[in-house]
Design the sequence.
């Protein structure tokens, strides 16, 4: 199987090729679970969402039209199911009733104003984000639980974006395609997610 060849992949799945399906599960299952977990309230719920997603892939592969890549189609199925489950579990609120926490940023400044002097300079400069990426933090055993807890405390959309970009290494284009949002919107949400995680982790490091 050539994973990058969507047409061959889809044809194999439509023909009931079990080896192709098994390879897909091996390739994507862990990533699907990580993304699902950002929308739902427990690991068990994430597992159920992923299982539902695989079932939907098998059931709906005949309707795949190739307008997006197979990966994008797969993760859109997952996100739609995870959002529905998250609403039911009160992990997220329906998008139609979102105030603007994720979108317009009216929930307050990204950085605490107390960290600036009266002249607008840093009183307590933050550590560079590049030195505190989730990838590097995951290598430090003492911060793993704190990072996971911090991500779980983010609104679902912010959590999903930071997991896709910084933990799974997706491009901004891939994230935009899956979540069906504009690149500028994705960039704002990613910045807000990173800022919140940085603040949470700095608090832990300063008081841990």
Sequence:
């Amino acid at each position: 199987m050539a994973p990058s060849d969507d047409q061959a992949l889809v044809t194999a799945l439509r023909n009931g090729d079990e080896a192709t399906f098994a390879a897909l599960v091996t390739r994507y299952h862990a990533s699907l679970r990580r993304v699902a977990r950002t929308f739902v309230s427990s690991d068990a719920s994430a597992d159920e969402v992923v299982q539902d997603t695989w079932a939907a892939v098998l059931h709906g592969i005949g309707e795949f039209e190739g307008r997006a890549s197979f990966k994008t189609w797969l993760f859109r199925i997952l996100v739609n199911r995870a959002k529905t489950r998250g609403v039911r579990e009160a992990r997220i609120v329906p998008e139609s009733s979102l105030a603007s926490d994720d979108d317009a940023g009216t929930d307050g400044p990204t950085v605490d104003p107390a960290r600036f002097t009266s002249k607008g300079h840093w009183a307590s400069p933050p550590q560079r984000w590049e030195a505190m990426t989730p990838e590097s933090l995951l290598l430090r055993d003492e911060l793993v639980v704190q990072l996971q807890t911090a991500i779980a405390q983010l609104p679902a959309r912010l959590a999903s974006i930071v997991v896709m970009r910084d933990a799974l290494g997706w491009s901004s284009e891939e994230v935009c395609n899956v979540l069906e949002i504009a690149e500028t919107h994705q960039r704002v949400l990613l910045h807000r997610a990173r800022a919140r995680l940085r603040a949470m982790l700095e608090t832990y490091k300063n008081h841990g």
Q: What stands out?
A: Confidence is low (pLDDT under 50) at residues 96-109.
